[in-house]
Amino acid sequence: MTSTMTPKRRKRIHEPARIPERGGRKLGYWLYFLPGALLVSVIIFYPIVRNLRLSFFHWRGGRAEEEFAGLDNWAALFQDQEYLQSFQNIILVIFAMVIIPTLLGLVIAALLFDVIGRRFGGKLSSFLRATYYLPQILPIAVAGVLFGWLLKPNSDGVVNQFLTFITGSEVTVNWLGGSYPTAMGAVMVLMIWIQIGYPVVIFMAALQRVDPELYEAAELDGANWYERFRAITLAQIKPEVFVVSLTTTIAAMKVFAPVFILTQGGPNKSTYVPSFYAYNEFVNGTDKGYAAAIASSITILVAIVAIIFIRVQNRSERKDA
Amino acid sequence: MTTTPVQNDTTRASAGSGEPPSDDQLVKARGRRGGRPRTAAEWILMLLGVLGAAIVVFPILLLLINAFKSPSDYSTSSPLDLPRSFDLTGIQTFWEQNNFPRALWNSIFISTMVAFLAVILSVLNSFAIGIGRVRGRTWIVLLFLMANLIPQEMLFDPLFTLYDDLGLLSNSWSVIITFVVIQSAFGTYLLSSLLGTFPKEILEAAAVDGASRWRILRSIIVPIVRPTLSVLMVFFFIWTWNEFLLPLAFLNTSDSLTVPLVLEQLSGERQTDTTTLIAGTLISIIPTIIFFLIFQRTLTRGITAGAVK
After folding, report:
1. Looking at chain A from residue 263 to 292, which residues have their Cβ under 8 Å from any Cβ of chain B?
2. Which contiguous run of DSSP H or E holds residue A68?
3. I want to staple A44 with a disulfide (CB 3.0 to 4.6 A). Which of A94, A188, B39, B147 is the partner?
4. The complex's ipTM?
5. What is the distance in angstroms between the Cα of A147 and the nearest Cα belonging to chain B?
6. Which residues sit opposite A68 in a β-bridge?
7. Are B90 and B275 in contact (CB under 8 A)?
8. Number of domains, chain A
9. How far is Cα B233 from Cα A41, in angstroms, rounded to an integer?
10. Is A16 on the interface with B (CB under 8 A)?
11. Can you give the pTM of this predicted structure?
12. Exposed, middle or buried: residue A259 (CB in 10 Å: 0-12, 13-18, 19+)?
């Protein structure tokens, strides 16, 4: 999980800290910035520029010549069923990584904080919070292998054995392959499992700054748990809900490892996501220019989402202020 | 760069030197002041919370139960049955056949180097941006953030070629250099806004005493923001440990693989027997779980500081 922030103009309350200068020279600070600037140029900006440029060429890679292609690669994206499929799947991924975890996270955080924390003790609630968070720190690749084991086809799979045990008759579903449309569902369950801890931790921290008097007053007024949840919890932690949705939406658009490990995009390309498709084209494709176009299109989309979110947030804050 | 003044205070407290109040203190403060007995509904909600947590850890528990079964025990019992005898064959096979100690070392080496170097780079960058207030700093921070935002396939091919030319493919340093930059982008963002609010009086006093910039950074600023630096270090370590795509691209020899890569490779092999795979999965998550138990508090603080900053 890599949190990403929402830049914003800060109201300056006091003078910024500054080391007084004898000669008034500020140039010296650039010296400290030099290593960072050099590294970020080579490792981040050079690849971005290179890929954007490459997306207008055909190139087989290696020593082959680059052929100028104009908008060919970009136009081809819109004709490409696999590409369109991969973007349709992003909607499902957003359900699994953004919508469901955020909603569940809200309920769980409110439950842990408002009910368990207040009525059963902070120890229990922080223990449960840690438990929900645990999948977040596992390597996603390892979590993928774990789910692959659980979902093995035939009688070998844990889930199948479990269902056999419950139903009494032998269940042999090929969850991740074959003709069952379950592979995308399995990928989604894995993502929900990985994601759930993140909103729980953030929302619980957000709840700590809510004035407890609000809850007590509401309780005295006879508000039940759901009413308190809606009127106090939800209203107070809106900024965090926003940040969580932003960071997880961006993560969802870039999702790679669960698909790579669990399904390799299969069966029948039903679990393709853009990131996996771009990777696959870079490694196995015949035109790196096309791969670069796919990767660039994701980058552009991520940038657009980030900008929209930041604008919406700025506007809602101006309204609040 | 904060959302509301209220948050600003709490994050500064948690990111700076002060500790946020623990959960227990808060519970005491807001307390069971009424002292009324718990209602049936509250018991049910509590059990639901516990049940949810149980569902979340269930896959890991299954791993724990099945990793210690012998192959024959595994094939004749249900995954829910406890092992009939304590068997280490799976773990032993995994450990010996997959060059695992080497992968463990690679992961530890890469993640530790990234954690240290990325923190150092973040400090240098944010000193120039937050204290030095170099021209164009808002843009610089935004540009840095891009390192965090862009999908990693964007870096894949150009960096692959670059490291190939430099002879760094299948060398830990290819991954280290890449992630030092990616992680320090986040660190630069977080630290520059923290240093932007650094108390001016302290810097002035030091300057009056004749301290140079470098000395002020090393002997005053770094010690004061050390709690934040340690949070960043923990996060950089875990994030790097978990990375998959770029290590998959850059590390291609069996000697250079990291823990997630070894496991992924093992699960792709058809002839791997299931007990070895389960044992391998368990062993691969143990380092992360140990790390989690040690740094649980730091983690919780860090996620929060990251989110609301």
Report:
1. 274-275, 278-279, 282, 288, 291-292
2. strand A67-68
3. B147
4. 0.84
5. 8
6. A57
7. yes
8. 1
9. 23
10. yes
11. 0.85
12. buried
The nearest CA of chain B is from the CA of A51 a distance in Å of 7
- What is the pLDDT tens value at each position of chain A, 321 positions in all? 444 444 444 444 445 556 655 444 556 788 899 999 999 999 999 999 999 999 999 999 888 888 898 899 999 999 999 999 999 999 999 999 999 999 999 999 989 988 898 888 888 998 999 999 999 989 999 999 999 999 988 777 888 888 888 888 888 888 888 777 899 999 999 999 999 999 999 998 888 888 888 888 888 888 887 888 888 888 888 888 988 998 899 999 999 999 999 998 888 888 999 999 999 999 998 999 999 999 999 999 999 988 888 788 777 767 665
CA distance B309 to B306: 6
A186, part of any domain: yes
- Residue A173, domain CATH: 1.10.3720.10
Chain B residues touching residue A275 (CB < 8 angstroms): 151-153, 245
Which single residue is written with the structure tokens 């390192």?
B147
Alpha carbon of A141 to those of A147, A225, A256, A261: distances in Å?
10, 39, 10, 6
Residues in chain A: 321
d(CA A124, CA B287): 25
Domain region containing B133: 99-265
In a domain, A19, yes or no: no
Does residue A182 sit at the B interface (CB-CB below 8 Å)?
no
**Structural domain total, chain B:** 1
Token duo for residue A303: 């940038």
Cα torsion through A309, A314, A315, A320, rounded to 10: 130
